Amino acid sequence: MGLTRTSAWIARDVWNEAKHRAQDINGVTLDIEIRRLIKLYVEGKVTIQRDLRPDRDPTREARKFLPEKTTWDLMKELAKERDGVSASFALEFMLWQYGRGKLILDTDPRIAS
């Protein structure tokens, strides 16, 4: 399992909210939570709802993070094949839900009501 530095196009508010939840509420780094989110996506445990996030956001920029290379590469393929989106969009969606407290990371990840 090798980690690789990469980046994804994520909106500023999404990144900041997710970082806050990871560090200040869950007591871990955002990189750890991103790796968990990617793993859950690859396992088919998170569904992307494309219509809930805008296709364009002027605050999107390349945000650096440290995923596990194999699962990140697989997520890139699956996002395109399964959801018709880029891996950046899929990750942004998951971080958006996570940062708002709508995606709960526990033994049974789910979208909260």
Give your account of this protein's structure.
There is one protein chain. The chain is an alpha+beta fold. 49% of the residues lie in helices and 12% in strands. It contains four helices and four strands; from the N terminus they run βααβααββ. The protein has helices at residues 12-25, 30-42, 69-83, 87-99, and strands at 6-10, 61-65, 103-104, 110-111. The strands form two sheets. Strands 1-2 form a two-stranded antiparallel sheet. It is globular, with a radius of gyration of 13 Å.
**What's the SSE pattern?**
EHHEHHEE
Share in β-strands: 5-15%
Secondary-structure content class: alpha+beta
Taken from the alpha-carbon principal axes, the silhouette is: globular
Biggest β-sheet: count, sense, barrel? 2 strands, antiparallel
* Radius of gyration (Å): 13 Å
Q: State the helicity in percent bands.
A: 40-55%
Strand order of the biggest β-sheet: 1-2
Number of strands: 4
Helical element count? 4
Regions with little confidence, pLDDT below 50 for 5+ residues? none
Alpha carbon gap, first and last residue: 34 Å
How would you state the average pLDDT, rounded? 88
